[in-house]
Design goal:
Elements: E1 37-51, E2 62-63, E3 67-74, E4 78-87, H1 122-131, H2 138-152, E5 154-155, H3 165-171, E6 173-174, H4 176-189, E7 194-201, E8 212-213, E9 216-217, E10 222-231, E11 235-239, E12 244-245, E13 253-257, E14 279-287, E15 290-295, E16 302-305, E17 313-320, E18 329-336, E19 339-346, E20 349-355, E21 358-365, E22 372-378, E23 383-385, E24 388-389
Parallel strand pairs: 1-16, 5-6, 12-16, 17-23, 17-24
Antiparallel strand pairs: 1-4, 1-14, 1-15, 2-3, 3-4, 7-10, 7-13, 8-9, 10-11, 17-20, 18-19, 18-21, 21-22
Helix pairs in contact: 1-4, 2-4, 3-4
């Protein structure tokens, strides 16, 4: 469960490459945003230094289709940990329904019921089948289940809110634990292996200080749960039903995954909790992710890894001054007639999503620079880079000093 905590670690130097790329207005006509779901590509890697004077708990080395966690250095009181996320397109074509005969024997452990994961419960199974009717691939089936949970359930981590899969299904309320256990129950009922992942979100990064990561607002930090799904052709893949599907960002520090032993020595002790004096410091970060498309579902603010051909046009690029220096922060106003929409940019990068064919008029603004008007041409299904240049604001020349008044001479 996400335990809401205020960031206490001033040493946390996280820099999240987050651009609030939003839906836009088409030139000459109103074009509503397709949805708040943004599709990302690229890589994002963070190296953490995690320190606790009484010890840092065991963290496993682990890798799946898009996520890698590796402990680089460790001693009695600290660990240096690399977490890397690769957002290459999810190229799975594993067929659905899943063939039980072709399923690897070791995957059967992730198909059965557990204490809080009701598999083949009548109403849950019926809902899962209804959602995936017509799905041809495992990816389509998983997407249908995840989209339904994200858009129809309310986050509730209250102490009196049951988090088992059955209770969450009927109440349509749950925390990260409840969302995850229900998703696993529905996927297993469909014959898709899925399992429970548990980890920690470092306070001080975007969730912990209630900012946004790619426009997705989720407050709170601390312990967290997410789901891992098995695809016959590409292996295991993480999703977080409060944040993203088909990937998790590198702010997910993995502690364990149910059903597999990632800690062969059964090491115990230590902590990751900041309330137990644990500090998280970013030693190095490389963020080369880019928002390139939008999807109709989920309708809520959400992130997705690319899994379909490009749906709409995207124009992105760097914002620079005439010398080529990056202008870190500002905004674009996208105009349709007399109406405009403001789209902020950060870290010198802008991204316009959901574009139909046509020409778009934008006004580019940044403190200390003159306002510039640009006309950009988009093509549906195309992603292209257009860098923008803003000139420094011209300083007004100071007015010349007034001429001294002269008293006319009296006539003789």
């Amino acid at each position: 469960m996400i335990e809401a905590r205020r960031a206490r670690d001033k040493r946390f130097l996280g820099r999240v490459g987050a651009w609030a790329a939003a839906g836009i207005l088409a030139a000459g006509a109103m074009c509503p945003a397709l949805s708040a779901t943004r599709v990302l590509v690229g890589k994002h890697a963070i190296v953490y230094d995690i320190v606790n004077p009484t010890g840092v708990e065991f963290l496993p080395n682990y890798s799946n289709n898009s996520y890698t966690q590796k402990v680089l250095q460790e001693d009695e009181f600290s660990k240096r940990v690399l977490i890397e996320v690769n957002l290459a397109p999810l190229n799975s074509t594993a067929p659905f329904p899943v063939s039980a005969q072709q399923m690897p024997h070791q995957m059967r452990a992730f198909l059965g019921p557990e204490k809080n994961i009701p598999v083949n419960e009548s109403n849950i199974l019926s809902q899962a089948k209804a959602l995936t009717q017509g799905s041809r691939t495992v990816h389509e089936a998983v997407t249908a289940v995840f989209n339904w949970i994200v858009d129809n359930f309310t986050y509730d981590a209250g102490r009196n809110t049951p988090q088992d899969g059955r209770s969450v299904f009927y109440s349509k309320r749950g925390s990260c634990v409840g969302y995850t256990q229900l998703a696993i129950a529905m996927l297993r009922s469909l014959g898709i292996p899925a399992r429970y992942a548990h980890g920690y979100l470092p306070p001080g990064y975007d969730w912990g200080i209630s900012k946004k990561y790619w426009g997705v607002q989720i407050s709170g930090g601390g312990y967290h749960a997410w789901v891992e799904v098995f695809y016959m052709d590409i292996g295991w893949c993480f999703s977080d039903l409060l944040h993203s599907k088909n990937f998790v960002d590198p702010f997910h520090v993995l502690r364990y995954t149910d059903g597999i032993n990632l800690n062969p020595r059964n090491i115990r002790g230590g902590s990751l909790d900041v309330e137990d004096a644990t500090t998280f410091t970013i030693f190095r970060e490389e963020n080369a992710t880019l928002a390139i498309d939008q999807l109709p579902l989920p309708k809520k603010d959400f992130l997705a890894r690319q899994s379909l051909p490009q749906q709409f046009g995207t124009i992105y690029g760097k914002v620079k001054d005439p010398s080529g220096k990056i202008i870190p922060k500002g905004s674009l106003v996208l105009w349709a007639g007399i109406q405009g929409r403001t789209i902020p940019f950060e870290n010198g990068i802008y991204s316009l999503l959901g574009l139909e064919d046509g020409e778009y008029r934008v006004i580019v603004r940044a403190d200390g620079h003159g306002e510039t008007e640009k006309h950009l041409t988009a093509k549906k299904g195309e992603v292209k880079q257009v860098d923008l240049v803003l000139s420094p604001r011209e300083s007004r020349p100071s007015s010349p000093p007034p001429k001294p008044k002269t008293t006319p001479k009296a006539k003789p």
